[in-house]
Amino acid sequence: MDERELKLNSLARYAKSSPLYVLEEHGHCEVPAGCGGVVLRWRNPQAGVPLYVWLYRDGDGTMLLDGEPLSSSRPLVSFGEHVLAFGLTVADPRYTALMFAAFYPPPADAHVDVQSSAEQDVAVSVLSAADGTWRYTEEPDGREWMLPGFDDSGWPAMVAREERRPPPDPKRDIGKYSFERLLRLGAAGIGAADNAGTIWVRRAFEVAERSPRLRPVRQDGESQ
């Protein structure tokens, strides 16, 4: 068998790469391919980054990004300033009302393999914490509070609430996995001081622009 035949029958001829796009390989039982399958996706890195989102809340509620509901647990978020907003029903203010984590790149156990020759120098981490960046109110006005630029300095800060409210039926503890998963990711349980009932939570964050690609310099001092 000559060298030409070996090249024609090599699996390497199916390999794909791009200097402009990111190839993501999603392999997990949650993807449409099912257990043992993979889903491949090309993504334009100039459009933003896909945040990998995990959420625990005690009771009913909503989650919005820049005032719009999330359509995926891996939303593509553009570069710049953004706001996460949550509507929560607090059943008992002594316990955790909210835990949240969002990452890019994804954690090692997220079953995602990212292959790209494009620059991968963007890192985003948003974790729930009683650090003054997570603020809430009981009666927000309009939609401005869900958007960047809103002054929330007059809102109370969320406080630490590390203990989870016991489930009504320990045999059907559907929130246990999410709670423990978020703890492993580094998220902290937070609540709303002594407030019970419906609250609205705001957390601003930024996806920083990627660094410009460095261009090699010729000996004459001009960039190539």
Your description of this structure?
With 224 residues, the chain is mainly beta. It has a domain at 48-109 and 118-207. 7% of the residues lie in helices and 32% in strands. It has two helices and 15 strands. It has helices at 3-8, 176-185, and strands spanning 22-26, 39-43, 49-50, 52-57, 61-65, 68-69, 76-77, 80-90, 98-104, 112-115, 124-127, 135-137, 159-160, 190-191, 197-207. Strands 6-5-8-15-12 form a five-stranded antiparallel sheet, with no helix packed on it. It has a three-stranded antiparallel sheet with strand order 2-1-10, with no helix packed on it. The longest helix is centred in the last third of the chain and has 10 residues, at 176-185.
In short:
The chain is mostly beta strands and 224 residues long.
**Overall strand count:** 15
How is the main sheet built? 5 strands, antiparallel
Terminal CA distance reads 43 Å
Structural class: mainly beta
Order of helices and strands: HEEEEEEEEEEEEEHEE
- Radius of gyration, taken over Cα atoms and rounded to an integer in Å: 22 Å
What characteristics describe this protein?
224 residues; 5-stranded antiparallel beta sheet; disordered C terminus; mainly beta; single chain; 15 strands
List the helices and strands and how they pair.
Blueprint: H1 3-8, E1 22-26, E2 39-43, E3 49-50, E4 52-57, E5 61-65, E6 68-69, E7 76-77, E8 80-90, E9 98-104, E10 112-115, E11 124-127, E12 135-137, E13 159-160, H2 176-185, E14 190-191, E15 197-207
Antiparallel strand pairs: 1-2, 1-10, 3-7, 4-9, 5-6, 5-8, 8-15, 9-11, 12-15, 13-14
